[in-house]
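Narrative summary of target 7.
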Amino acid sequence: IDETLLAVPLKVGDRVTGVIVLSHLGIDQFDDEDQRVLEVLASHASVAYENASLLQKEREAAKTASALLGLSQALSGAGNVSSVLARVVAAAPSIIDGSVVVAYRRDHKSGDFAPVHHRGLPADRSPATIPAELASGYLASLDEPFVIERDVAELVPREFWLTDEPAPALIAPMSWEPDEFGALVVVAPVVDATYSERDRDLARGIAQIASSTPVT
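Modeled conformation, tokenized:
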């Protein structure tokens, strides 16, 4: 089957954001005028698409800022670590996309990580306490958020899985003076999901707000 294609890139400056393609059966079905018309349409479409993308990013940024502000306000009267973690778990799903959210608190003596609050798990299922020696093998940082990818999550013993199938997890460490330490775990909604640098920044914001909350 003979077919003619006319393709014009969608460009913003020197950056190509997409392409418009017209197809017509037969040979030499488009002329120079058709190309000029499509180039004009592509130029207008590029500007419209770019403006829409910027507007969406601004809306997302405003939504995120509002959620973080709401968390900050909610934590103002928390008073103790358990209450801080409860409010962090409640707020996290509106900031970072995840199917399960769990807050762990490290035991002063044993170093084990005990789950203190969680969201997204079935009513008949609770997260298990993670032994210190197991946690130390996956705790990539004590200060910065990090991601445990699916291939690594699959190595965790099944009794510690938070979902039926292992999925990427975003971990945000939190600490309070003198020796309180905890971690927020957000499990991705699907097994092939990825957490971006923006997600890590959001997790960092949550952890910083939580860690700066005075506790007794």
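The first strand starts at residue 3 and ends at 12.
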